Amino acid sequence: MTTVATTCPYCGVGCGVQARVAPGADVEIKGDADHPANLGRLCSKGSALAETIWMEDRLLSPRIGGADAGWDEALQLVADRLADTIAEHGPDSVAFYVSGQLLTEDYYIANKLMKGFIGSGNIDTNSRLCMASSVAGHKRAFGTDTVPGLYTDLEEADLVVLVGSNLAWCHPVLYQRLAAAKAARPELKVVTIDPRRTATADLADMHLGLAPGTDVALFNGLLEHLHVSAEVDSDYVANHVTGFDAALEAACSDDPCVTGLSLEELDAFYSLWAGTQKVVTVYSQGVNQSSTGTDKVNAILNCHLATGRIGKPGMGPFSVTGQPNAMGGREVGGLANMLACHLDIENAAHRDAVRTFWDAPHLTETPGLKAVDMFRAVADGRIKAIWIAHTNPVVSMPEADAVKAALEACDFVVVSDITAATDTARLADVLLPATAWGEKDGTVTNSERCISRQRAFLPVPDGPRPDWQIMAQVARRMGFARAFDYATPVEIFREHAALSGVAGQFGKDFDISAMSGITDSEYDTLKPTRWPVTAIRTGGRFFGDGQYFTPNGKARMLPLLNHLPAAMPDDDYPFVLNTGRVRDHWHTMTRTAKSPRLSAHLAEPFVELHPDDAAALDLKPADLARVTSPDGGAILRVRVTDTVQKGQIFAPMHWTGETASAGRIDALVAAVTDPISGQPESKAAVAQVARFEARAFAFALSAEEPSTDAPYWAKARARGGWRMELAWEEPPTDWISAARAIFNLPDTAEPVTMSDPRRGLQRLAFIDGDRLVAALFVAPEPVALSRQFLVGQLQGEADLTLLSGQPGADRPDPGAIVCSCFEIGANTIRRAIAEQGLVTVDAIGEALRAGTNCGSCRPEIRTLIDAAGTPKLAAE
Ligand code: SF4
Fold first, then answer.
1. Secondary structure of the chain: what % helix, strand, coil (to 5)?
2. Is the CB of 46 under 6 A from ligand 1?
3. What is the predicted pLDDT for the residue at 25?
4. How far is residue 400's CA from residue 131's CA, in Å, rounded to a whole number?
5. pLDDT band at 666 (very low <50, low <70, confident <90, very high)
6. Neighbouring residues of 796: CB distance < 8 A, sequence distance ≥ 6
7. Does the beta carbon of 14 lie inside 6 Å of ligand 1?
8. What is the pTM of this model?
9. How far does residue 42's CA lie from ligand 1's centre (Å)?
């Protein structure tokens, strides 16, 4: 076995991974104990990485118009079409829409080609949807896009405030580090601020369920409280901050009661924050994804600046990014309004420096179009050619149906990706096969500015190429051969590092110039390294010395007033729709959906409603609901929970046209953006909810991938095949024929059937030899069966007792999967709680192993313990 140290390709925690490859290409994944981000831990997604690297669905050859083509032909076509479009319509008629999945070296080349040589600012990234408001807030306050602190600050703090951050599910290893720190030092207080009571609240001493879009008012109230309680650090403000008086005056005129929190809650939070010196405020998409996201960021920064609680151990504001290389994208200038290395497009001296460095006479003079405006320009024909790399805007952009229509109408769409099976790739004129995680070489930067190597541990299959190479090859064919003459990613890294030295001369924070002479072997063996990396310093915190990157060296506090979301609920759309993530899936599931165990936790798209709202709509758990906004609609499984507030609903953003009939939740989100950052308001759309009136529901199992035109379907991988949920308003009359069509079975496949006409039940199983190849369970109500038991029947010898839908008394129903590492279900945990009187998560772990590997399920185990009323059980 060979072991390769690389980096997880999912969230911005940026965990180190040890990939062990056996000669037969079996891969084992473990956390890297030497990586400072995770110290050996991995979450459920990271732990299942080996299940996501199949070759199935891989795009192995370029395709033109859907037909396989050679690289030469495809690259020349892309280069010619871009060049012709630019010649006829100007450089702003083309665009690149790229991704935080790219490595820094890929990103650097894409940005250099568009901004330096095509001469347009029209390159933006899906990171715009994730953390653009943090970038804008940092620049307004600090003069640069600087994350001041380190992950260890969360462990060293006495108070960690999590604002709009479901850390337990979205940055699980960071959550685990915080949980471990709190276990070791219970006096460390945790506050969660979120309209939803998420799994993260399990750790919290205080949860503040504020109204959506009221964070500015909350932190304005805190600033006023800090002033009134004499907790403002006057010396720090005098020496290191401008704008305090105006910020305070604005704060005092705002009304924190708009948060909907009680005065007691506000006072408790304000007193705790004011009275705790070592406080870290972590914020994420719940803050950023808002029409006032930048103001929310600055409202948080204002409080840290007023108290000087920044840049020192255990204190500071901390933006955690969603994607593995969102930070790398920021460093190379992958956002439309940034130049490379944190330099500013609007600054003539910065432009001159980059123009000279790149020898790029056509360097753009103006920012390009940010993501939402970019796709509007595609829709109205200003952009006539777009190249989309490793992202799925037909699913993830707001007003996703309009984005789909725009791409369908666009003259020329290029998509580079690892698969053709995405909603966006299906619209491409040219598909370019790129190398996948496991085959890629380069660097990524995580949320604490730590640059890590992603290293290839699998051979590149015949066909795909690295993204930097594809982009450079197109650039060369467009006539820019000298500027894009790279043979390896380390050559790009050296150039990027050298350019950062130029930025450093302008007093910019991102300076890794001491790595500009890195040798090939030093790059190969590069350990995780926090920037900056200059002749005089490596890593560490920023701003501990009170020096900022503004012209006068002082941080800026800003006068802010709360503004409610752009659209508010009304009679037609009475709910606020909050979108977000689930624990075990990543973005649009192109990788995590390959893993049966990741798909087992939550296997179909859903909407969460408060019990009172569900009752008013006559919706019960497991019903289906039509959720509609002014921009689009979805059909989703109903989950009833008081973790959402009355009048609010939550739905995850992962499901696509590949995995569900109507689950693309961003189709419902309005393309309303923050005026400064351009980030869309993905947390506060408006929506209505109504029952989806189905006359038949079904649960299906299949050894092969099923397909259907039923109005509702959602499919997920299971061990040995697939599972699927279906529903019809007008059900088929012949279920055997319907089943044959769904499962694509030959006439020779004989069904075994069981029916109960009185109850409207139909059950069919198709056996081939001794193997179950397909089964369909139909009912007039949402199908209530032991799904985990049934899914297990896809493996091993077929047992026709499966038609009962329930395991025998000797095989207890495990229930819905909670611990995906060991595939332990909720019923198994409930039984252990009841029968063994277990009252702690650790005790459950000892008895069942649940929660003892990645730990991502520990909050849900705690919820099951709480729901069981453990003190009584313990006493029995
Ligand atoms: Fe990957 Fe999980 Fe670590 Fe994020 S927390 S980098 S998803 S292992």
1. 35, 20, 45
2. yes
3. 66
4. 19
5. very high
6. none
7. yes
8. 0.95
9. 6
440-464 confidence digits (pLDDT tens)? 999 999 999 999 999 999 999 999 9
Q: Angle, nearest 10°, between helix axes 71-89 and 467-477? A: 60
Instruction: Decide: 13 in ligand 1 pocket, CB within 6 A.
Output: yes
Task: Using the mean position of ligand 1's atoms as its centre, give its distance from the Cα of residue 655 in Å.
Answer: 20
Q: Which residues of 184-221 are buried (b: 16+ CB within 10 A; e: fewer)?
A: eeeebbbbbbbbbbbbbbbbbbbbbbbbbbbbbbbbbb
Which letter does DSSP use for residue 376 in this model?
Answer: H
DSSP-assigned beta bridge partners for residue 97: 124, 388
Smallest Cα–Cα separation from 515: which of 457, 525, 506?
A: 525
What tokens appear for 460 in the block? 């590149």
Q: Of 429, 427, 457, 453, nearest to 442 (Cα)?
A: 453
pLDDT tens string 577-605: 999 999 999 999 999 999 998 998 999 99
The contacts of residue 783 (CB under 8 Å, 6+ apart) are 697, 698, 699, 725, 777
Q: What percent of the chain has pLDDT over 70?
A: 99
Tell me the pairing of strands 241-242 and 555-556: parallel
- The CA distances from residue 182 to 147, 166, 186, 574, in Å, are 23, 17, 5, 39
DSSP letter at 211 equals P
Q: Is the per-residue pLDDT at 874 higher than 60?
A: no
Does residue 414 line the site of ligand 1, with CB under 6 A?
no
**pLDDT score recorded for residue 1:** 77
Kindly give, in sequence order, each residue whose CB lies less than 8 Å from that of residue 99, ignoring residues fewer than 6 positions away: 125, 126, 127, 323, 389, 390, 391
Atom of ligand 1 nearest to the CA of 173: 5
